[in-house]
Write a structure and sequence with these properties.
The chain is an all-beta fold and 171 residues long. Helices cover 0% and strands 41% of the residues. Strands 7, 8, 10, 11 and 12 form a 5-stranded antiparallel β-sheet that branches. Strands 5-6-9 form a 3-stranded antiparallel β-sheet, with no helix packed on it. The chain is elongated, with a radius of gyration of 23 Å. The mean pLDDT is 84.
Length: 171
């Protein structure tokens, strides 16, 4: 839920121009203010930014639009317990676990991850720093990357700059 003080109500007769106000002291933990919308839905897109001018044609209510903040970057460490068709991906969790719902671990046969061979999603907890990736091709080189994600049921955002490691499988 948002906290703080909303901007003062602005009243203008139809036909006049209104300058869009700033957010004042409105804050929402884990989110960044993205602007204002005439839609009250959680999927609204910011139509207006503070300082924009709009011509008033009818009664208009503006609603704050909040963008979910991305989690801090995850640092990929290495792979362990390398077997013929599986391995364990290991990472260092971000210093702050605030807002992290889980991790996405991807395995690919190329460094650009255009040929993904596996993608697993695991839910986060404070001690989770590894996951087993199974069903890989025997004897192949596998590139791994991991990213944290936050999800509020309407938006999903990923930590930037997912770190990578490469490992060869036995076989």
């Amino acid at each position: 839920a948002a906290s703080g003080v909303a901007p003062d109500e602005q009243v203008q007769p139809a036909g006049n121009t209104l300058t869009i106000a700033d957010k004042n002291t409105l804050e929402r933990k884990g989110y960044t203010f993205a602007g204002w919308s005439t839609s009250a839905t959680r999927m609204a897109v910011a139509e207006y930014q503070p300082g924009d001018e709009i011509k008033i044609t009818e009664d208009t209510t503006l609603y704050a639009v909040w963008k979910l903040d991305a989690p801090d970057k995850v640092n990929m460490k290495d792979a362990s317990d390398i077997q013929v068709t599986s391995l364990v991906a290991n990472w260092k969790a971000p210093d702050s676990l605030d807002g992290i719902n889980g991790y996405v671990i991807q395995a690919a046969s190329d460094q650009n991850f255009t040929d993904k061979v596996r993608e697993d999603t695991v839910l986060a907890d404070s001690s989770l720093t590894s996951a087993t990736i199974a069903g890989l091709a025997s004897g192949s080189v596998v590139y791994l990357r991991v990213a944290a994600y936050a999800d509020d049921g309407y938006q999903r955002v990923y930590s930037g700059g997912a770190a990578t490691a490469d490992e060869a499988l036995y076989g």
